[in-house]
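Propose amino acids for all 426 sites.
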């Protein structure tokens, strides 16, 4: 009979020189679902649904964290970190969170606002003079060519950057003659241009909209991040590390995934399950040319839940205050007046008919929108497939981490939303 040998993790790590993974503690005390008004049987439907998607090769894997009434009620992993390699999903998997970076950049800007170092109605040309004389494009009927340029009715302000009313649009979000002049996305801009090169590029283009007139997805939070850098005299990552990530215990949130953490970086399916085309995500293990406030960070479910809970608790997580109570309330209030054309649905169909606060979407109606929730819930997802939301009325915070960058991500945003809310029974 063969003897079975049990080798400790510590011994294995020392033999193979593999660094031990230090996992962050739970972001909240744990509770049973029934202790916080949720149903264990109904929560079990989540695993059935998600595992079914993985079995059908629609999704590589995921991590889902749910907190309610100040307790961690659900924290589960599904499927694979790397499906092609057969590597199972760990709880501390690191994900490309894309535009989930935006609310964090917004908080950085609001901290400077609280200190009187940044004002909402300041023109951004105060910080970058090249934006002083922006023009708005006039296009032909088919929007295939620019036939004229007219002066802006007013300057682009700091508030415009927070709420996507600057007119500095993503080139990859449309096919007009103006879209073709802009970089495709935050990720592509940060990968190919330095901060000054990026500013030169976008400041030289005509705007698609008059500043303040239209919500349209674009580079506002990237420009805001560069303003944070100028005021703080730190890189955006250094600023966030000092003023947010470290104070909140967000140990795995960075703009660069270091070599010792690269083995935890989740991968999408090699082929998009809907189109059959190859798909991949940016290699956040390689340093970008500037740290993109619009979409450059990586994080974990544990880390981002801490951020979501901080906003849910009006700027405070545990004993750590990141924003003042009134500042958080201001951030989480709809900033789009009736005069602003709202095109949020074009950026993400699942956020259609939402309003928009400072750096994130805010729900203004109980019905109409295509997902469950409460008036006042807030969120902003990432194009790589990640999602989160906080619902103050239900004392609920949810983080969904998955690398599904195709349009199938919209399916999972609605599906997880329904599965979480149907489990609330009181």
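Proposal:
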């Amino acid at each position: 009979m063969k003897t079975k040998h049990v080798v400790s993790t510590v011994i294995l790590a020392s033999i193979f020189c593999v660094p031990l993974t230090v996992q962050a503690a739970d972001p909240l005390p744990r509770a049973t679902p029934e202790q916080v008004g949720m149903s264990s049987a109904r929560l079990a439907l989540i695993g059935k649904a998600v595992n079914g998607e993985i079995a059908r090769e629609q999704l590589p894997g995921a991590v889902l964290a749910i907190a309610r009434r100040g307790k961690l009620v659900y924290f589960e992993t599904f499927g694979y970190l790397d499906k092609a390699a057969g590597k199972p999903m760990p709880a501390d998997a690191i994900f490309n969170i894309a535009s989930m970076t935006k609310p964090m950049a917004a908080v950085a800007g609001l901290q400077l606002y609280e200190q009187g170092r940044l004002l909402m109605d300041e023109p951004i040309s105060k910080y970058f003079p090249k934006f002083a004389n922006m023009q708005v494009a006039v296009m032909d009927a088919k929007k295939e060519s620019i036939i004229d340029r007219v002066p802006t009715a007013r300057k682009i302000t700091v508030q415009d950057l927070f709420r996507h009313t600057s007119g500095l649009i993503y080139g990859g979000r449309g096919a007009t003659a103006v879209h073709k002049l802009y970089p495709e996305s935050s990720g592509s801009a940060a990968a190919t241009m330095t901060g000054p090169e990026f500013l030169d590029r976008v400041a030289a283009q005509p705007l698609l909209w008059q500043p303040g007139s239209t919500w349209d997805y674009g580079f506002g939070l990237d420009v805001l991040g560069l303003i944070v850098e100028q005021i703080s005299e730190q890189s955006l990552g250094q600023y966030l590390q000092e003023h947010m990530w470290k104070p909140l215990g967000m140990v795995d949130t960075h703009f660069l995934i270091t070599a010792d953490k690269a083995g935890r970086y989740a991968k999408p399916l090699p082929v998009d399950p809907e189109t059959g085309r190859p798909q991949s995500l940016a290699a956040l293990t390689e340093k970008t040319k500037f740290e993109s406030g619009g979409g450059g960070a990586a994080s974990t479910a544990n880390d981002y839940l801490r951020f979501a809970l901080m906003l849910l608790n009006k700027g405070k997580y545990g004993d750590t205050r990141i924003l003042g109570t009134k500042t958080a309330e201001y951030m989480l209030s709809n900033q789009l007046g009736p005069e602003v054309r709202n095109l949020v649905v074009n950026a993400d169909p699942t956020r259609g008919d939402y309003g928009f606060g400072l750096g994130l979407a805010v729900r203004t109606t109980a019905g109409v929108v295509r997902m469950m929730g409460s008036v006042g819930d807030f969120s902003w997802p990432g194009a790589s497939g990640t999602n989160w939301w906080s619902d103050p009325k239900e004392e609920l915070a949810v983080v969904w981490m998955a690398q599904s960058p195709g349009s199938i991500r919209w399916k999972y945003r609605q599906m997880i939303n329904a599965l979480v809310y149907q489990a609330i029974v009181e």
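The two ends are 56 Å apart (CA to CA). Residues 1-22 have pLDDT under 50 and may be disordered.
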